[in-house]
Amino acid sequence: MFLALLFALGASAVAIANPGGEIVSQTPDTPGPGLEKVGPINPDTGFPEWYRDRKGETLEACLDPKDPMCVPTAVPDPNQPISMTVPGTAAPGTKPNFPSEFFYQSASANIANVGSVDQTTQKTGKMTAIMSLEGAFANGAPKQGDQMVFARIRMKVTSGLDSGQPYTVVYPYGEQKIQVDSAEHGFFVTEDIGLTPGSFADALTGRVAPFLHWTADPVLPHGYTGIPGTNHQIEGGVGGQNYVLLIGPNAGLTAPPFDANASDVDSTQCDPAILAKYKVSATDCVMTNLFSLAGKESTRGGLDVTSSTYSRTSAGATTFDVQADSKATTPSQNVVVQEIAPPAGGPDFPITNLIDRNGHFYAHVNATNLATSGAEPKVRVSNYSDAPRTVRDVQLVDSLTGTAVFTPPASPSAGPGSMAISVTSSDALLSGTMHTDLADDAGNLVDLTGGGATQATPAGGLALTAPPATVKVTSPAGGTVVLPVTMSGGNFTPAANLHADAGPDLPAIDPGQTGVALSGTGSSGTITGYKWTGPYTVTTTTDPTTHATTKTLGALVDPATVAPGASLGSFNGTDTQETATITAPNTADDYGYRLTVTGTAGPDGNASESDDMVLTVGAAGAAEVLTPGKQRYVPAQQRWVVDGTSTDTTNNVITVFLGSSHSAGSPILGTARVDPTGTWVLDLAGSDIAPAPNQTVSLLSSNGASADGLLVDQRATGGAAAGGAAAGGGAAAGRGPGAPVIPAAAGAARPIAGAVPGVVGAAAPAVALARLAAPATVRAAAIATTGVPVNVTVPKGATLLRVRILTTANKALLTTFKKVKGGKKVKVTVRSAKAARKLRGAKRFVVEVRAGTAKNRLGKATRKVIRIRA
Predict the structure, then answer these.
(1) Is the pTM of this model over 0.90?
(2) How far apart are CA 306 and CA 320, in angstroms?
(3) How many angstroms separate the CA atoms of 69 and 148, rounded?
(4) Are 779 and 869 in contact (CB under 8 A)?
(5) How far is Cα 59 from Cα 296, in angstroms, rounded to an integer?
(6) How far apart are CA 35 and CA 50, in angstroms?
(7) How far is Cα 266 from Cα 286, in angstroms, rounded to an integer?
(8) Is the separation of the CB atoms in 568 and 585 below 8 Å?
(9) What are 376-392's pLDDT values in tens digits?
(10) What is the β-pairing status of strands 397-398 and 304-312?
(11) pLDDT by residue (tens digit) across 80-98?
(12) CA neighbor of 391 nearest in space, from 512, 316, 301
């Protein structure tokens, strides 16, 4: 039962499971320092040989599938060596013979009869506490490079608790205060530390330390901390906490009386000493002091060779140095260095023991005889204390020292600076070329010159516009050195020139809008003053070749030219600061604003600089693009459906005419207001205006853009086209129904905006559900600041997306629309300070998306519930 539960809860490094819950606080409040040291990496597994706690206890990876004292692990072939590099014979050449997960420590405690009886199942809840140091792979299956080790603390209660109440869990490594979600009766929370592949030292900062042990028992085999699947009392918990407690409202309501001699895993009410210590009643506390525990004491020190370098004099006298890491034990590990293949006449150097200091080993070896037989390419470093022996064959390489100095030019306009690199090898007889990772201004990697033990850049240095922070040099004998780049000389980088930046142009500002922000935060230099002025007239010119438009500021707007009753807006008292706010003019047009900065002159001698930005109020200065959609009439319902899009969303109304909008007497079918997404729809049933065969309609916007000659799609039943019209609506004069329409000429008639006609319910479009991806949890503050990222896969045929934030009671807090392309993926960031305030104190909210072709033609909703973290 324990093993089945352990695998069910330990299959992934990050768990998301009902019933949820939230860790409100922990003691200690931050993890670690937990373990003391991680051991050398085993080249066959890619995992550390061992982890050591601060009491000196060292546990190794419990990997042997035939060892009954290890938590059982599945491998392709248990009869073959456990290895990441040797496949099992059960699947030759395809999978490493390695489990997907294993443990250095596996600790679990279970409590039954938690809380009150569920009236539906007639059962009480069950609690599981897991405290493990686990090896696994980032993507599940064993794969080289995905190895990781993490410290896991996981708490789960299935049911029986009071909804929305806080509970405290006391366990061998601390305490957790856990909040039960509203409408839930349990919790499931996990803390994993060390989930970055290859960063094995990260697990040292987890909470799993020191390692736990069974209390003295003659049955426990030597070299193990416990027996998996067998419940027993333990020792080693911090502060004597060799138990798991659950404290909170009615946690012990149905637990049997405490029995200090209990030999099974059934829960008990807390003993009198515990009740007195935590000042709780028996009905609010359950506990167990029995644990299923597995851990194997390390018998191998392993070996990491951290450095292996040699030196040679011009006379050929040779020495070499080896440094290595292993386990610090008493007595010390027996680590030696020797020749791999000694010559027939005898070894070039004697077998030498490495000197140990707390697990760090070194040897400085006189190998003068290497001068007669040539440089030894490799030496063998072995840990004779391991069984089987750990052996590492390592290359001897030379040691490099040097400098990298950059001299800047006299001024930025004087050309490139100069980089000088000089490197010396420990091998005085070195020959060949040293290479660097430095690229010159042409992109070519730089080689050093000289060919001997000391090599450098050419005399006078290498011309270089800007230096890197470091330069790596590689010797032909294999040595490398990373040199920090220093700078020298009296040529200093000049002070910055003044630079004014008035920020980007602002389009489509509503007339009279208050609180419009102007930003000069991009300005730089030694600035002592800011000044905003405006509004200015704006002139737009178009390049006849590139068709690019340019907007330039003219004179300040003359108030005498403004219509009576209109306003030019005003600065709101912030025109002498880095940022300013204004009230926009209430007449549609382009307006210019200028930022002037003053301060200390830079090298260009300018003590004042200016920059301009353009504010577009309404649609002035921006040509509206009117794009027709469908033009449909259903005789059986006397129903018109005409829709489309417009690039002008500011108080824009589309008038639909039967016939031409420029012909006197053309009847008006109705009007439709353009919504914030640019979409408009006229959906009118029971109309007394019917089209003739091959009749056309036309459109006219409030801003004068028009579209004529749009062929009506006449449908007998709302399905098949009738009267010879093309299904979906055609367009006269060769213009398709989806083609953008050229803006109307200046002075074209503009209809008075009418009321939006009543909308008769239309069938949802035949599009599939939108697929939704969003975070499982977000911080409460993020809803109002950075927002919630929502990734949506838009179904084919959809052109409009609606995204909403809802409460769990289905109350809408935010609604936003976005024009989309069917079959594409889009990202929408929903952000609302109002929604954040409304969700204050809530534990969850809902993100909903619906896709369709118009606001009244949206498909079914897709929803995701997101938890809120404090």
Answers:
(1) no
(2) 14
(3) 23
(4) yes
(5) 5
(6) 11
(7) 10
(8) yes
(9) 678 999 999 998 899 99
(10) parallel
(11) 888 888 665 545 556 789 9
(12) 301
